[in-house]
Amino acid sequence: MAEPIDPKTALRTYLHETREALIWKLDGLGERDLRMPRTPTGTNLLGLLKHSLNVEAGYFGETFGREFPDAAELVPFTKYQEDPQADWYARDDESAPGIRDLYRRVAAFADQTIDELPLDAPGRVPWWGPSGRPVTLHQIIIHVITDLSRHAGQADILRESIDGAAGMLPDSSNMPDYDWSAYVATLTTLANRHP
Question: Is 123 helix (H, G, I), strand (E, B) or coil?
């Protein structure tokens, strides 16, 4: 029987797995494919990564009175007043490798916050209202895992629509060996029976 792991280790494991799934969805694509809006609201793979790194920098930084060392590389809070979508796309002067590198550095910063603080460490989320809302590190880790999981799911769908790459990770796709064309045809037939 496996030994149970402590809650912080379990949370960190899920956070790391979700990050890696999201980052993997960008592998092997060119800048155009990564930047191209794929939904009516402009969702794009590089924007998902940029948004996620800003989420982690804020929640594991300012919430606990910490500042990311390279804060000038992040989208400043004041920028959202001009452009509420400021962290959802890469500017011309930003590149996919640069954003990926920045995310890795933000992830290390977030992990440092998690390593140094106890799960019951108090924090305050300033963008959750005029006085912020009191939280604990435990709550924030769960909040960020939930947020990143949602964006990793969006990235799954976007990537599959670009080149068919599907699954959780390159070395663990979690996808069965299956006749997907026949499956899609069956589902299409079923859907067409219900106009």
Answer: strand
